[in-house]
Design the sequence.
């Protein structure tokens, strides 16, 4: 048992200390790797081509926000980015905020000063090809915004052992010859 | 007086030798693999070692934890129907039993990383359902019987089936019937971890604490249905004329503990393929066994005798260790269709009894030698496929697996074979629901006593349904 414990510890923990170990674990003293640029992923086994939006189920890390590209119909060509929640709940956010960063940091890419009056925007996730519809105004995360319109999004992506009488079922439990 | 005491001590000595019955069947019961606890995997014939990208990696390949990028909470239920049709001296008898149980609760936690992955998991899972049944009924016209096979013990004597010198007039030609109901399972509490040591190359391991139970309830009857034995079975005991029935009930109870460890490797080749390998280190099962014996005899005179159960029951403990299990696997992704296959090498002749308490070392040694003589190495095969319909998240699966018999001379009919299928559904990118069905079939034989003189020929069919739900966040 002791040997196996040592082996287990060796493989799981010590390997991360060897030079060349690929995995770099988040250091709480450093910036949280919550953007795609701050996280380098291994290859995807499930790809958009054949799994559509369900790729997110396997390939999207919980700690990385997927950028949502917001485009405004009605003549403007401006494209803006906001961080999508990616299905995380409030508890997850607590973990992510443990480094002292608030929601406003996560919304840093949102232009929330002039929410347009349009009613529909198109979004696409970084890894998936699904399209989401977001009712205006998109940048509702800024608590300073004066816009009071509600926001909703839909993410559609998404013996024998049975022959044991061979035990020689005699009450004496003599070994017998049993199953041969 | 001295002669009588000598007989009593002699009988006790004989019992002390023969009351020990641990044999290869007990070892195989724990060493033979089960069906696991993941509906997605079972739907693919449990060819899941190279995939292992959910919390069931604790059972299949712990390196697969490294593929998880979201936290996962999962659990499931399993249903087993064990159907056994037995042919015994030309007479066919059928019986079945069912079992429904919670088979898994798992949690996986990927640590945030800048690159690569570090994932830990905790899991409770049932690795094997020990539910089974057998029922038999037939006339044995041979000159043998269980009563005769027990003459080395006090049981026939105590039931007035022998004279004072342990001789009996019973000489076979009895109707033999009975049933054995087995229940229980092997539960595992597993702590796992995996890390991506090089890009796309994962190493993982786990430690498992085993907790389980097993109970075998065995009823056995020998009846003089042809009224052959009209005389006294115990000389000068007229109430023992016209022997009718001999009944024996054994209850075997196991309290199973133990531990084991597994090491896994997994390499992902872009979006094309995955390759997996695992080393299951020998599992140690600590068995606390209680063996309870009841019995009776009935005569045409209306006389009945019963055994003193306390005298014949006992408690012992011992360990059973299983052999290494070496597994190699691959899975290829062909435009959305995953095809996976694997093979597992197990040398059952390396099953061992150890650390007996209440059993003699020489008996254990003899049992281990018998295991070496009659069990063999085998290679289990699994193959499966999965297709995901991307537009609706529906997943269709099929698979086939073979677990060859552990016995040296068994034909392929004795191999456990399963045909499996399953469906899965992914909802909102966070919830997965999987259901699987496995149909198993194989043959087996069993002896009520001695070898091939009171043998059941069993045709076994099993139906397993498994449901697993997964929540990722």
Sequence:
């Amino acid at each position: 048992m002791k040997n196996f414990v040592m082996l287990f510890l060796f493989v799981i923990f010590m390997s991360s200390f060897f030079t060349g170990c690929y995995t770099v674990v988040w250091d709480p003293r450093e910036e949280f790797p919550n953007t795609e640029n701050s996280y380098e992923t291994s290859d995807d086994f499930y790809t958009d081509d054949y799994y559509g939006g369900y790729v997110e189920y396997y390939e999207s890390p919980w700690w990385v926000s997927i950028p949502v590209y917001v485009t405004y119909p009605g003549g403007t060509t401006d494209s803006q980015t906001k961080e999508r929640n990616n299905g995380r709940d409030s508890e997850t956010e607590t973990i992510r905020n443990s480094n002292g960063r608030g929601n406003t940091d996560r919304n840093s890419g949102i232009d929330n000063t002039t929410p347009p009056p349009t009613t529909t925007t198109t979004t696409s996730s970084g890894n998936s090809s699904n399209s989401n519809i977001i009712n205006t105004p998109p940048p509702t995360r800024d608590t300073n915004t004066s816009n009071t319109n509600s926001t909703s999004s839909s993410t559609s992506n998404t013996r024998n052992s049975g022959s044991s009488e061979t035990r020689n079922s005699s009450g004496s439990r003599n070994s017998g010859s049993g199953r041969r | 007086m001295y002669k009588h005491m000598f007989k009593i001590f002699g009988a006790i000595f004989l019992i002390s030798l023969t009351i020990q019955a641990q044999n290869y069947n007990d070892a195989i019961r724990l060493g033979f693999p089960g069906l696991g606890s993941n509906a997605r995997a079972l739907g693919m014939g449990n060819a899941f070692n190279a995939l292992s990208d959910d919390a069931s990696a604790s059972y299949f390949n712990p390196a697969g934890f490294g593929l998880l990028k979201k936290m996962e909470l999962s659990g499931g239920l399993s249903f087993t129907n064990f159907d056994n049709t037995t042919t015994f001296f030309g007479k066919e008898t059928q019986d079945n039993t069912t079992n429904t149980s919670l088979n898994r609760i798992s949690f996986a936690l990927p640590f945030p990383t800048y690159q690569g992955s570090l994932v830990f998991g905790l899991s409770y899972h049932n690795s094997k359902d020990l539910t089974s049944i057998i029922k038999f009924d037939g006339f044995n016209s041979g000159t043998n019987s269980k009563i005769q096979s027990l003459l080395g013990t006090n049981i026939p004597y105590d039931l007035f089936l022998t004279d004072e010198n342990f001789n009996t007039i019973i000489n076979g030609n009895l109707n033999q019937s009975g049933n054995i109901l087995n229940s229980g399972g092997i539960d595992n509490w597993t702590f796992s971890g995996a890390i991506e040591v090089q890009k796309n190359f994962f190493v993982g391991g786990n430690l498992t604490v085993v907790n389980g139970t097993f109970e075998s309830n065995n009823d056995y009857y020998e009846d003089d249905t042809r009224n052959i034995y009209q005389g006294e079975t115990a000389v000068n005991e007229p109430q023992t004329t016209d022997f009718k029935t001999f009944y024996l009930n054994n209850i075997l109870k196991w309290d199973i503990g133990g531990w084991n460890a597994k090491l896994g490797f997994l390499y992902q080749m872009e979006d094309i393929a995955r390759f997996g390998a695992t080393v299951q280190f020998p599992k140690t099962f600590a068995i606390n066994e209680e063996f309870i014996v009841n019995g009776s005899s009935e005569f045409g005179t209306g006389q009945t005798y019963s055994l003193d159960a306390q005298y014949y029951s006992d408690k012992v403990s011992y360990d059973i260790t299983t052999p290494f299990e070496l597994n190699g696997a691959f899975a290829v992704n062909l435009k959305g269709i995953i095809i996976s296959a694997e093979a597992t090498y197990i040398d059952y002749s390396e099953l061992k009894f150890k650390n007996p308490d209440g059993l003699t070392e020489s008996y254990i040694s003899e049992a281990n030698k018998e295991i070496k003589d009659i069990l063999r190495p085998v290679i289990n095969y699994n193959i499966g496929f999965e297709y995901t319909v991307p537009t609706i998240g529906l997943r269709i699966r099929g698979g086939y697996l073979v677990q060859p018999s552990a016995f040296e001379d068994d034909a392929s009919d004795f191999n456990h074979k399963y045909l499996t299928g399953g469906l899965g559904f992914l909802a909102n990118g966070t919830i997965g629901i999987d259901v699987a069905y496995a149909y198993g079939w194989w043959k087996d034989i069993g002896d009520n006593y001695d070898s091939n003189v009171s043998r059941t020929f069993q045709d076994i069919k099993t139906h397993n349904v498994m449901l697993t739900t997964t929540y990722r966040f």
Chain B has a mean pLDDT of 93. Chain B touches chain A through 110 residues (CB under 8 Å).
